[in-house]
Design goal:
Chain A: Belongs to the bacterial solute-binding protein 1 family. The complex is a heterodimer of chains A (about 400) and B (about 290). With about 400 residues, chain A is of the alpha+beta class. Chain A is built from 17 helices and 9 strands. Chain A folds into 2 domains: about 170 residues, Periplasmic binding protein-like II (D-Maltodextrin-Binding Protein, domain 2), CATH 3.40.190; about 210 residues, Periplasmic binding protein-like II (D-Maltodextrin-Binding Protein, domain 2, 3-Layer(aba) Sandwich), CATH 3.40.190.10. In chain A, the strands form 3 sheets. In chain A, strands 3, 6, 7, 8 and 9 form a 5-stranded antiparallel beta sheet that branches. A two-stranded parallel sheet of chain A has the order 1-2. Chain A has a two-stranded antiparallel ribbon with strand order 4-5. Chain B has a single domain, classed as MetI-like fold (Orthogonal Bundle). The chains are: A alpha+beta (about 400), B mainly alpha (about 290).
């Protein structure tokens, strides 16, 4: 079995493989790495037919490895070994390609707003409920706490997803329509969403792209201004809670809120997806055995207990209930997960996570942020580049 | 050994030869073939003729930008690094107390320089609140946005490469030490100044080594990857997006192996042409002792 992750996940998964292997009489070789480079490694393995029997696969990769549903094993054919009743129809659909169940969702994740409550209290403000609240907080932070204090941050991918959220709320449509594989927004709608990014910078809500770049290629949670509360909010995957909360200095408290809203919005616009799926190789000679282990990891008490919440709140009903019963999931993880599950929003197209589509958005937003192009040109270039990327992917 | 000795040499070189064929020649030829295909790793390569090259030269603005950045980087880095390496080599060529310690110390960055850890360190040194800006503000200046300003970011990456001057320096030092002392003595007796001695005796005599270093450093600079990948990821505004980063992204993020191969072959051709130009020009400025053509 192959997977990516951090140390706690590596240890828990090895333990789970041991107990599941002992239970079902199989021996399983673990093959694990960090996140960085895992996509490249797995793709090279699949191309060379040397992939593991069981694989942890990022949800958007399904359409790369198995566009027609045959690139990975169809888990429905192994349903005598895997209890599929633990997933609802939408979750099964998310793991399916052309009607074939290529991956079982391990957990679900979504982008949520998370704020440093301590910093907001210091600024004498309640946590925001709307974009207007957030924008009004910018000048207050600057005045009360200092010019280097911001209520929020957004650059790179975070900025692209904030723009996506704002536009989705406004239009009620996802940027890329999952049904048609086409861009669903008009040029004007995209221009408005891009312009919104600038209003955040102009109102001292977020540091400018250039100011963020001054630190070099450093993630938010490694920045001192995050750990000491000078940046007091962000828009992140709920599954990254510990990553962003661990570096905070003592006394700083993080809380999740509902998605910020705007007047006249058509949807809250949650960006939700299966955070990862477990798949079985189409080339595996031991599919039945792999299915037994997969079921043990996701549904059986021994495997579930050993894995714990190292992959977030489990998507499998049985596993979730088991972990909740023994308080193995942190309360804030559960709260964040509930917000993700309960929020409404149009379906997210897997192509939104494709490198070429992401570059098309981020590169043009960066040009706009640096003042190299205006919002109309950025929208025009973005649509052109996304369409080109979509054409490449479709062909 | 007897009659076998004729083939013995072949046996000795066989491991290297097999390695060369398998791990250099085969990928080299394969990449040339792949550059004429559409290949995503997961399905078989599909022959597309010159389509990749046509896109590269007519429609790909990222390639155009990346090529300009790469050429700027190379033409900035190589002269700066060689000049600095030669300067330090000249200084270290003096017979001073503890000079061997300095020679070793100055070589250390070359051992460490290409590593990820040093790239990360560089990121912190030049960060907004890093060591360099602390010194600048301590001296009363304004902090500089090293990574956020496109013009500064490439220069910062260039400095990292220049800092790894040790290997070029050691080669220069060896060359300086091989210059016949009697020539210096004769020039000194004739009243030549140290600068004239350096300009008219030292420099001409070490031109073969300057030429060697020029070729090696140029080839290495065209292949730079770690520094910009770790420090800036090619940004901002692709101002540090060197061609090797673009090749990597196309090959391993977009999985367009055919296109990545085409970029790699264009890069190879540029390096080859510049090397040939350097070899051609060397006839006019490189002096080989004992070469009757000179």
């Amino acid at each position: 079995m192959s997977w990516w992750g951090g140390d706690s996940r590596h240890q828990a998964t090895q333990e789970a493989l041991k107990v599941c292997g002992d239970k079902h009489g199989h021996s399983i070789s673990p093959e694990f790495t960090g996140w960085s480079g895992h996509f490249e490694k797995l793709t090279t393995q699949i191309a060379g037919r040397t992939e593991a029997d069981i694989m942890q696969v990022n949800w958007p990769w399904l359409s790369i490895y198995s566009a027609d549903g045959t690139g990975l094993a169809d888990l429905k054919e192994l349903s005598d070994k895997i209890d599929l009743s633990n997933w609802d129809e939408a979750q099964i659909e998310a793991g399916s390609m052309k009607g074939k169940l290529n991956g079982l969702p391990v957990s679900t994740t979504g982008r949520l707003f998370v704020f440093n409550e301590t910093a907001w209290e210091k600024a004498g403000l309640d946590l925001p409920k709307t974009w207007d609240d957030l924008i009004a907080a910018g000048p207050v932070f600057a005045e009360k706490l200092g010019e280097d204090h911001y209520p929020f941050e957004a650059a790179g991918l975070d900025a692209a997803l904030v723009v996506t959220l704002y536009g989705t709320q406004k239009t009620g449509k996802p940027l890329i329509d999952p049904d048609t594989n086409e861009i669903a927004w008009s040029m004007d709608e995209l221009t408005e969403a891009i312009t919104f990014y600038k209003s955040l910078v102009d109102n001292h809500v977020i540091p400018s792209w250039k100011a963020v770049a001054a630190a070099g290629n450093v993630p938010l949670h490694e920045k001192p201004e995050w750990s000491d509360g000078r940046i007091a909010g962000t828009y992140q995957w709920d599954s990254t809670y510990f990553k962003i909360s661990d570096p905070l200095q003592d006394g700083q408290n993080l809380v999740y809120t509902d998605l910020l809203s705007q007047e006249g919005q058509k949807t809250p616009g949650i960006y939700r997806k299966a955070s990862m799926v477990f798949s079985i190789s189409a080339n595996s000679e031991k599919k039945e055995a792999a299915a037994e282990i997969l079921n043990c990891l996701l549904n059986e008490p021994e495997g579930v207990a050993a894995l714990g919440s190292t992959r977030g709140v489990p998507a499998s009903k049985t596993a979730r209930e088991q972990l909740l019963e023994v308080n193995a999931i942190d309360a804030i993880q559960t709260e964040a997960q509930d917000r993700v599950i309960n929020a409404k929003g149009p379906g997210i197209h897997p192509m939104m996570e494709f490198p070429d589509v992401r570059s098309a958005m981020q590169d043009n937003l960066e040009l706009f942020a640096y003042g190299e192009i205006d919002a109309e040109t950025a929208a025009e270039e973005m649509i052109y580049a996304i369409n080109e990327a979509l054409d490449d992917i479709k062909s | 050994m007897g009659g076998d000795s004729k083939y013995l040499g072949l046996w000795y070189v066989a491991p290297y030869g097999i390695g060369l064929i398998l791990f250099t020649a085969f990928p080299f030829i394969t990449s040339l073939y792949l550059s004429f295909t559409d290949y995503d790793l997961l399905s078989s390569p599909e022959w597309v003729g010159l389509k990749n090259y046509e896109k590269l030269f007519t429609r790909d603005r990222t390639f155009e930008k990346s090529l300009k950045v790469t050429l700027t980087y190379v033409f900035l880095t190589v002269p700066l690094k060689l000049t600095f390496a030669l300067f330090i080599a000249v200084v270290l060529n003096y017979r001073l107390r503890g000079i061997n310690l300095f020679r070793t110390a100055y070589y250390v960055p070359s051992i460490l320089g290409g590593s990820i850890a040093i790239a990360v360190l560089w990121r912190y040194i030049f960060a907004e609140v890093g060591l360099v800006n602390m010194i600048i503000t301590g001296l009363g200046g304004e902090p500089i946005n090293w990574f956020g300003e496109p013009g500064n970011a490439l220069f910062t990456i260039t400095l990292l490469r220049c800092w790894q001057f040790g290997s070029a320096m050691v080669i220069f030092l060896a060359a300086l030490q091989s210059v016949d002392r009697s020539l210096y003595e004769a020039a000194a007796i004739d009243g030549a100044t140290p600068w004239r001695i350096f300009r008219h005796i030292t420099l001409p005599l070490i031109t073969p080594v300057i030429f060697f270093n020029l070729i090696m450093q140029t080839v290495q600079a065209f292949q730079e990857f770690n520094g910009p990948y770790i420090i800036t990821q090619g940004g901002p505004l692709k101002s540090t997006y060197l061609l090797p980063l673009y090749i990597y992204d196309e090959a391993f993020k977009s999985f367009d192996m055919g296109y990545a191969s085409a970029i790699a072959w264009v890069l190879f051709t540029i390096i080859m042409v510049l090397t040939l130009v350097a070899f051609w020009s060397s006839k006019k400025w490189v002096y080989y002792a004992g070469d009757k053509r000179n």
